[in-house]
Design a protein that fits this description.
The chain is of the alpha/beta class. It has helices at 48-55, 83-90, 110-121, 126-139, 156-168, 186-203, 214-220, 238-243, 248-255, 296-300, 319-324; strands spanning 4-16, 21-33, 37-41, 63-69, 75-77, 93-96, 174-178, 206-210, 223-228, 231-237, 306-309, 312-314. The relative contact order is 0.13.
Length: 328
Amino acid sequence: MPETILKVNGVSKTFSSKKVDVKAVNNVSFDVKKGETVGIVGESGCGKTTLGRCIVRALNSTAGEVIYKSEDGTEYDLQHIDKKTMKKIRREIQMIFQDPFSSLDPRMTVYDIISEPLRANFNLSKKEMEERVKGIAQKVGLNPSYLKRYPHAFSGGQRQRIGIARALVLYPRIIVCDEAVSALDVSVQAQVVNLLKDLQEEMQLTYLFISHDLSVVEHISDKVGVMYLGRMVEYAPTDDLFGKPLHPYTEALLSAVPIADPTVVNDRIPLEGEIPNPANPPSGCHFHTRCKYCTEKCKTEDVEFVEMEPGHYVACHRAKELKLKGII
């Protein structure tokens, strides 16, 4: 059985100003095993990107811990280690960013962009660096002749391949993919997703795949976590979550996925009620203002994130009752 390589325990991130505090991430916990892909989904503003940035410590979390087990078996809490140790760990945890246009420096050549992490972390000779960069470029489907060009000369899909090459050049163990295909055309999305899967198998990579596209997440992920208003509301193996969701929000999300068959009528579940303000979230279960199964308990009592079935976690007061009645 694969070992657990990453443990996210009670991570929270609050953005504070003089007038208001916004809990972008609120007490999120889950584990990631070596070699698997964990998808994180939810509507815009739910906190999934902030969670990814906290994990790689691009942002410092307000509370909680992120335990990373390195290749030599040493465990590090990424939120509480010094800068020198964190620089060493960054070689093993990299990130692919959402926008392939703004995430690449337009003044740098492709070679400089891909080789920059090597220059920051290793003292390689010119020949060693050229071989490493050319090898990674070829792995992601970039012709070595492209290395002298600048980002403006490439399409969105090619730019994302450059971003992937930059993340891979240090031979990391974990990659956080933050909406890595959302800015691309559908046909290019498929190419990049298949590339990521091939690279995962070849290089023994572990992915945290953040996306709002459920069809892509279903295709690439082994497990999926669903976030709503900063909280994780459901976490389960992909087949279980897509086959038998236990949270009303997940149920509504899955009903909105388009079906590529004009003869099939999709039973869409509309989310009614008010969309909550993240700066002033509802009491009790945060989803109760839009939930058709809401009761008085949902409005007043905070909900716990519990294991309903082996490996299937859900934060819903009525999940067990609705499952027994066959409603969900």
